[in-house]
Design goal:
- The complex is a heterotrimer of chains A (about 450), B (about 350) and C (about 190).
- Chain A has 20 helices and two strands.
- Chain A is about 60% helix and about 0% strand.
- With about 450 residues, chain A is mainly alpha-helical.
- Chain A folds into two domains: about 200 residues, no CATH class; about 110 residues, no CATH class.
- Chain B starts with about 20 loop residues before the first helix and ends with a strand.
- In chain B, a hairpin with a 4-residue loop joins strand 19 and strand 20.
- Chain B has a four-stranded antiparallel beta sheet with strand order 1-24-23-22, with no helix packed on it. In chain B, strands 2-3-4-5 form a four-stranded antiparallel beta sheet, with no helix packed on it. In chain B, strands 6-7-8-9 form a four-stranded antiparallel beta sheet, with no helix packed on it.
- Chain B has two domains: about 30 residues; about 280 residues, Neuraminidase.
- With about 350 residues, chain B is mainly beta.
- Chain B has one helix and 24 strands.
- Chain C has one domain.
- Chain C is built from four helices and six strands, in the order H-E-H-E-E-E-H-E-H-E.
- In chain C, strand 3 and strand 4 form a beta hairpin.
- Chain C starts with a helix and ends in a 15-residue tail after the last strand.
- Classes of the chains: A mainly alpha (about 450), B mainly beta (about 350), C alpha+beta (about 190).
- At the A-C interface, helix 1, helix 4, helix 5 and helix 18 of A face helix 1, strand 4, helix 4 and strand 6 of C.
Chain lengths: ~450, ~350, ~190
Amino acid sequence: MSRFRLAAITVPFLLVVLVPAFGIERFPPPDFSNHAVPVTTTPAAQPRGIDWIDVSVLVAGLGVASWLSLKQRSRRGIFILSLVCLAYFGFWRRGCVCAIGSIQNVTLGIADPSYAVPIAVIAMFTLPLAVALVWGRSFCSSVCPHGALQDLVLVKPLKVPSCLDEILRVLPWIHLALAVLLAATGTLFLTCKFDPFVGIFRMAGPRTMLIAGGGILLVSIFVGRPYCRYLCPYGALLGTAARFAKWRPTVTPDSCTQCRLCESACPYGALNPPMPEKHGLERIASGRRRIVMIALMLPVAALLFGWIGGKIGIASLPLHPNGNLAALILQQEQGSISGTMPNELTAYRQHGTDRLAVISQTSALETRFLFLGRCIGAAFGLVLSLKLARIFFPSPSSDYVTDQGRCVSCARCFSACPYELLRRGIPVQIPQKGGSHD
Amino acid sequence: MSEKNSDNNTPATLDSPPVPGRRTFLRAAAWGGGILGLGGLAGYAAKRFSGGQPARTATPPLGDEFTYDVSRFQKSDPALIRYEEVTRFPCGLERGRNITASADGSIWVAGTGGIRKLSNEGKLLLTIEIDEPVYSVVIRKTGEILAGMAGKISVLDGSGNETAIWSDYPDNFLPTSISLVGDRIFVADAGNRVVLKLDASGNKTGIIGERDLARNIAGFMVPSPYFCVRMAPDGLLRVTNPGEHRIEAYTFEGDLEAGWGKSSFAVEGFCGCCNPVSFDIFPDGSFVTCEKGLPRVKLYDPEGNFTGLVAGPDAFPEYLKAANAGTPHSLGSGIYAAIDPTGRVLVLDAVGGTVRIMKPKD
Amino acid sequence: MAEPSSSINRRELLKSTARALGLLGVGSGAGLLSAREKKSDTRWQINPDLCIQCGRCATECVLKVSAVKCTHSFGVCGYCKLCTGYFEPEPINLDEGAENQLCPTGAIKRTFIEDPYYEYNIINDLCVGCGKCVKGCNMFGNGSLYLQVHQDRCLNCNTCAIAIACPAQAFVRVPVGKPYLLRGKGGAHK
């Protein structure tokens, strides 16, 4: 939460209230003849240092996950690591602070100079991203407790139709955009408020959160990782970072016979069919079309979504406590509040805050919301155009390969590939090219 | 395991890549974009127009047994109000702590920032800047000003220059009220919960109100720095005993003669845990008292029977009825009353820093 | 196959560059953010001077029993017989009868010290953090009762649900070394 704005309103008032408060130390309690005034005791806070254990476990987990998915190629290893990380990050540390939420802390840290992001949180934000840039989404495979939970309850994965899948994959970017907007303005941490699993980790929470969490978990039994694929904002970032990874999980080191067994083994739709590379003139033409498409779409998308973003920014103003208060003050002055006075107005009247200060703070806030909304909207438009471009101009490959952005390194596809099994010394029948076999 | 090409896209071969059919995709994209857009707009429209304020709360509120409600006491019966407001003006201090009227009719206010002298119309006649808060002020016949501060009493001349400091007092000395009786000075020391009797030069000559069970004096109960002493026309001192909700009568030697007052939220009694915070006495011996918590200025006859209101809680602003307003944590934030030589009642709103002049209704 | 390999090389080069830039950006961003003024290990706390005792502390906490509890500053208390934080506004008798008590869960213990003083203690396990006694004490009394987040129960969520709901914006982040904003002597107020 951004406190410096609050301080700008209340510090002048508090100075008036608290400056004479020093006098309270000169007003003594009664003089008892034989009773000592007790000292107010307060329970101490959790000791420091626990954050560093978290970072160490994170580093170890990322290392082991990368090694397991890229070198050992072991599904069992990933499974065991998922259990360990779910137990530690999920149930022991109660899922907070997590890497997904760290986006908000980092955003607030950038936007508000008075907020110091804890180092452990910075580590939780940057380390999985750094690993994704080099080794792919090892974090998602087994270290993230949310992913681990969904992965572990997956029983019968259904295939999501690709057009629906494409559209749903836009949602994490919308979530990211909103989370960044609300965090940067100091309104609230959206991801935390709507995190479905943290209620399960804490074994406590508002009823709606627990029901939503249970619901998504039920869906996870049949649809692989719905939160990861369609809602997680950090997944969106990791997916983008993983596109530049030097190493990524490959199904088979040998050549692919296109039997498609791996494609059906992947519950997350992260196996891409081969894309023949274009040659010569067709290649140049295709390349030119791609550039033209991006050049046309990008400005249009950026402008359109920038405009929408600005509108959403303004609409989000009442979510901010100051914006909310200003809206209530104006409503009261217009006489449109009926019934009991809202608590926010009671607090405002009791604090004796200057009305003009609240209104002017809010208009400064409005400008900020508008500006940020537009920028974030434009960025969203940019991302959307690049995604579309990738759909129409996919990267070439000769084999079935893991999708760099979507593969979460869960290691399920390895043991589906018959060549992989052969490599491991398990005698199998090699299916014929084209996909027919028994 | 047999593979089915169940999606309507072209099957995978090396010659024709299984890109989703362009038409399919565009149709899907249009649908999807439409749905997303509608959903987003619907969500924000709902938030925008749903009774105005989006709830930042996630759970329903507590039941009635968890609410503290004194609103029924905050309304005053108009039939009881005997006074009306003549005028109101700022007192010139950021926070007031006491008010008094001098014999020439001018109004003196003490508080954080020092002392201010005001005329009946609110014109600032004299400004005395003092760094520490001043808890009480009286004007001697000679024109000298006695300013009570923590640990000492400062003697100032008529223009506000300090001529003497009296500080030979016990620890925790906090003079919240000073009363002049001829040459004698009576100081209500809230810190030590006694009334000190001083001579004309500030030397301590006696203590009134120390706990003395042999004389049936239980002592003053002063839980907060509101402690007031006044001289009554019947020759006895009147001192508040806020913790017991009484005003007690003492001789100059400290004998407890009488007392009145009862604990009650109703208009006849004194509310809360420590009231009245301030009072003054009319020439005929009747009282005007001030309370905090339920800010009320009330009238009592010389025997302590309730006779009416000067101003009830509804005449005072919200912040005086709020929690945190009347606590000594924001020291001296109640209301104080003084009677001016013409019989009008001066009421100081110490938090808002305004003085009201009230005169009897015709 | 010169053409494809050079194009693959170009793509790989672009990818490597992007990767390097990404790593650089992430690393320097992390470094810049970490270099801030060190007050980063914080906990949530209530500023008692802003609190209006709305009751949301008891309902909004993600825990079943709220981590917010009433705290008593004994040095500020007046030890009154008629404690307005303990007794209902119009008690029948000034005794410990449940019908006279303000606290709906009976979490305040009243002990006689000497005439006319009584001591009041909060039983933490019974207190739900509703703030009813706080309101009574602050409106009429010395303000020695006030709500504070108890750090042994608080989970220190990244975003405190009560902080979001607080109508008075009374929640602040405090350093973990001094996680209470107490009133009176020895209290840490800004």
